[in-house]
């Protein structure tokens, strides 16, 4: 496991995989670490943990609830801000789907009540498609107490996602952030990460996306302010955020118009 993660995070992930392995047995295909913790961008006190698991066959409701009770905050306290945990059946992610259908989606942590969803129709699919697209390139398979036991690499476990689907999901993400939290630092950094992918085809952390954006001609100063606000929680002027959004949306529309 990556030694750059704090020891308590490494220990937590090992226990998480162990619990899933013991309960799911041969049903478990693999467990994957996505997000900042998988590409050396984890920051204690700010970052969450994104973990995805793949099972061979669909789970029934009893099995889903049992998995949740194995890994939620009450059963296994998360040392990060929260755990975002998603389980897919193998057929849901290989080949790739424009609207990935999860078996369960759990957000759990020390500072929030559990968010549990067993029905993909109740969630916006762009979150899941973008997580898979980024995780497929930047994520890694996790192993439990036995370091020789882990699933296939993310590029083998998750089907390749067409670029157009990713651009469409970025558009959906921008729409969601504009409607729900336009004045947050997260919305600005998320837009920067999307902008970087639109232009370069490269995924990165949100912070690296913001650093890239600052180097681009015409980048508004709100990006620098957002980098500072990610630690303070300060709200940002919506009008200035929209200046950035206009740039990113325009770039994305141009790519979608030419990307057949």
UniProtKB/TrEMBL annotation:
List residues of the Adenylyltransferase AadA C-terminal domain: 158-216
The molecular function terms in GO held by this entry are: nucleotidyltransferase activity
Chain ranges passing through the membrane? none
Q: Which Pfam family, any one of them, does this sequence belong to? A: AadA_C
Q: Kindly state which keywords UniProt assigns to this record, in alphabetical order.
A: Nucleotidyltransferase, Transferase
Top-rank taxon of the source lineage equals: Eukaryota
Tagged with keyword Nucleotidyltransferase:
yes
* UniProt key word Lyase: no
Q: What is this protein called?
A: Streptomycin 3''-adenylyltransferase
Per the UniProt entry, what species is this protein from, by scientific name? Aspergillus phoenicis ATCC 13157
């Amino acid at each position: 496991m990556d030694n750059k993660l704090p020891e308590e995070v490494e220990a937590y992930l090992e226990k998480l995989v162990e619990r899933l392995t013991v309960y799911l047995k041969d049903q478990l295909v693999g467990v994957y670490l996505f997000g900042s913790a998988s590409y050396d961008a984890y920051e204690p006190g700010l970052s969450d943990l994104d973990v995805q698991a793949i099972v061979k066959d669909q789970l029934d409701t009893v099995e889903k609830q049992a998995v949740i009770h194995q890994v939620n905050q009450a059963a296994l306290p998360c040392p990060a801000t929260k755990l975002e945990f998603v389980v897919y059946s193998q057929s849901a992610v290989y080949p790739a789907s424009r609207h990935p259908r999860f078996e369960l989606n759990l957000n759990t942590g020390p500072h929030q009540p559990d968010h549990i969803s067993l029905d993909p129709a109740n969630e916006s699919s762009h979150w899941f498609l973008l997580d898979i697209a980024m995780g497929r390139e930047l994520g890694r398979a996790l192993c439990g107490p036995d370091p020789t036991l882990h699933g296939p690499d993310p590029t083998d476990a998750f089907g390749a996602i067409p670029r157009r689907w990713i651009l469409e999901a970025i558009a959906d993400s921008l729409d969601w952030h504009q409607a729900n939290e336009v004045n947050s630092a997260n919305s600005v950094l998320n837009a920067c990460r999307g902008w970087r992918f639109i232009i370069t085809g490269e995924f990165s952390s949100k912070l690296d996306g913001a650093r890239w954006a600052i180097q681009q001609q015409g980048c508004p100063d709100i990006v620098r302010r957002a980098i500072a606000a990610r630690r303070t929680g300060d709200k940002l002027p919506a009008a200035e955020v929209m200046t950035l959004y206009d740039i990113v949306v325009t770039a994305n529309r141009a790519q979608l118009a030419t990307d057949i």
